[in-house]
Design brief:
The complex is a heterodimer of chains A (117) and B (279). Chain A is mainly α and 117 residues long. Chain A folds into two domains: 71 residues, Dioxygenase LigAB, LigA subunit (Protocatechuate 4,5-dioxygenase, Chain A); 28 residues, no CATH class. Chain A is built from nine helices and no strands. Chain B is of the alpha/beta class. Chain B has a single domain, classed as Protocatechuate 4,5-dioxygenase, Chain B. Chain B has an eight-stranded mixed beta sheet with strand order 6-3-7-2-8-1-10-9, sandwiched between helices. In chain B, strands 4-5 form a two-stranded antiparallel sheet. Classes of the chains: A mainly alpha (117), B alpha/beta (279). Chains A and B meet through helix 2, helix 6, helix 7, helix 8 and helix 9 of A and helix 8 of B.
Chain lengths: 117, 279
Amino acid sequence: MSRAHAEIPGTVIFDSVQAMKGYALNKMCYSFNAECNRQAFLDNEEAYCTQYGLNAQQREAIRNRNVLQLIAAGGNAYYLAKFAGIFGLDMQDIGAQQTGLSKEEFKTKLLAANMQR
Amino acid sequence: MAEIVGGITTSHVPAIGGALANGLQGEPYWKPFFDGFIPVRKWLSEVRPSVAVVFYNDHGLNFFLDKMPTFAVGAAPEYRNSDEGWGIPTLAPLGGHQALSWHVIESLVNEEFDPVTCQEMLIDHAVSLPVALLWPDQVCPVKVIPVCINTVQAPLPSAKRCFKLGQAVARAVQSWKGDEKVVMIGTGGLSHQLDGERAGFINRPFDLEFMRSLIENPAWATKYSTYELVEKAGTQGIELLMWLATRAALPGRVRQLHTNYHIPISNTAAGLMLMDNQG
């Protein structure tokens, strides 16, 4: 399916292609709104992924706790944030992981935006 | 006749909920952000609006991808906050104004907008946190009408369409026969991107130009496509659509009464504007 928009470097637009690809993954992450579901995932991760019908790529990305892989597998940032929350990761942890920086380096990068003119 | 008294636009970030729950408002990291709200609270205590129309985007609390409305309007007696996945303490439910909600819906549909209507609607941090920031010491004194705009799944409504939505909401409110004083609130943005190798993207010059445009040339941002806005403001910076709808919902003479801009709160450039609406 062709895309309706140009590419933005380092960015995956969550469009129809991603929405279809990531449906099962995002549905699982949406379930993590509920504490009992977060616990069920922690109790038996593989069974929980099976319950939601994740494909091999999505399972691998979940196992690796790897955000870029999760996005490549169709994950949407708003739902993935709920997955990250299970492990107590905040947005700087997530940002650091995706940009290959340490958390401190990532925070420094954010602060540096104050120098933009 | 109902009166539109002004507009407030602010960023929303889940971490603000954590800061509130832990009483961190005075910490050096948070103080420049929280202090920005002091003049806005003063204005609210003087103007005393009775209703708030809140333009916001849901983050996967009320809506999932199984049914994703482009626009949705709340028509519930009460709106509850709920766990969004992080176990942050939930905030108090907010009262709705069902009669005015339905009037807005009737008016919008009459103007060829086709919103989803919600008699049950969970509100996430995009509604509950701004309310907690604006009225921190009291039970929320306004009834709310949530207006949700999709920023989750492309295609998103264009900036131009969101601007027209705001204008239509203003006409709806102005045609209401009650004596409500209505404040327009828009929550989201400003520039930030949580996902991808471009995570941490912030665009200060664009944000400042956008804030200025709301006073000097309100429809300025409508010249951009949503993809161009993502390029300029980040994948979640597109939430500035809420600011645009809010500004468009102020039909009178608009003055900027207060502004604040602080980088960063979490990964976000946090903006705040207070505008009054006269005549």
